[in-house]
Amino acid sequence: MNILAFESSCDETAAAVVRDGRTVLSDAIASQADMHALYGGVVPEIASRKHVEAIAGLADAALAEAGLRKADVDAVAVTYGPGLIGALLVGVNFAKSVAYGLGVPLIPVHHVRGHISANYIAHPELEPPFVCLCVSGGTTLIVDVRDYTEMAVLGATRDDAAGECFDKVARVLGIGYPGGAPMDRLSRTGDAGRYAFPRVQVHDAPLDMSFSGLKTAAINLIHNARQKEEALDLPSLAASFSAAVSDMLVPRVMEAARRCGRRKVAVAGGVAANSHIRADLEAACAAAGCRLYLPPLSLCGDNGAMIGCQAYYEYLAGHTADMALNAYANRDI
Ligand code: KG4
User: What interface predicted TM-score (ipTM) does this complex get?
Assistant: First the structure.
């Protein structure tokens, strides 16, 4: 089954063809990050307009790269939420038109389910059940993946997403947008013990997380140093901050796996590229006797292949949509 999949929930427009859920025939992506970098963050209106400009060309590119004609497409899939509403609407309406024109089923895919599916592409042997840490610019969730389309949220951030914190602190430091990858690079030569950042516990919810205090602590530290004209050890600041984020995430996902009796732990989303989090998870999983599944960096960020992969399992579960499909800025997994 060849699924032509679209993703447009934030600042990447993507189209991919995935065969039978696990074989990626093509994966075309147009990033708008350079455009939004001018403003220090995603400007929703610009994002929507850039998706409009890019999506048809990417659909053609994905089919050409896969060596397929339009008639070879068996179904069309699209991210329908969560994300920026205007951005999502571009993908949803384009996908509806393609499905309508080709007379094939339309499969709506939850963005975070897509991120989880990136692991199926990277690890052909991986099957549910497993626990997945989903960390991106908009989401921080610990999910029990009971089956391909049956999931339960075990823990969630009460405020900011982890990626958003990286981006905001990087913006104050002036090291670029999106800020996670530059912070990660900067941290490599730093001392993670140099600056003391808070590790927050949410009362009565041990698997929930909170990042806003950590973000504020880092930003205050930078402002105070600037006011006093004190030099900051930037690599150590980035390393200490990354260690605090990792300390918030890793023990919780391990505790979630323990509670659910899962021996497999996966990671998903853009922040899954972080070297501190990856190293800490590797150590924690080795100590707990769990197998760790990390997607390659190329599949951590938004892409169409992950949507095409998850769409296959949604289709098998009977989850298709008609032409009334809408987009949703917020959507439970
Ligand atoms: O999954 P993604 O591409 O888009 C969303 O759905 O949000 O994630 C983007 C997020 C951004 O916040 C970005 O700064 C962060 O992932 N990110 C990282 C790293 N690479 C990307 N955060 C920490 N360390 C990284 N190496």
Answer: 0.97
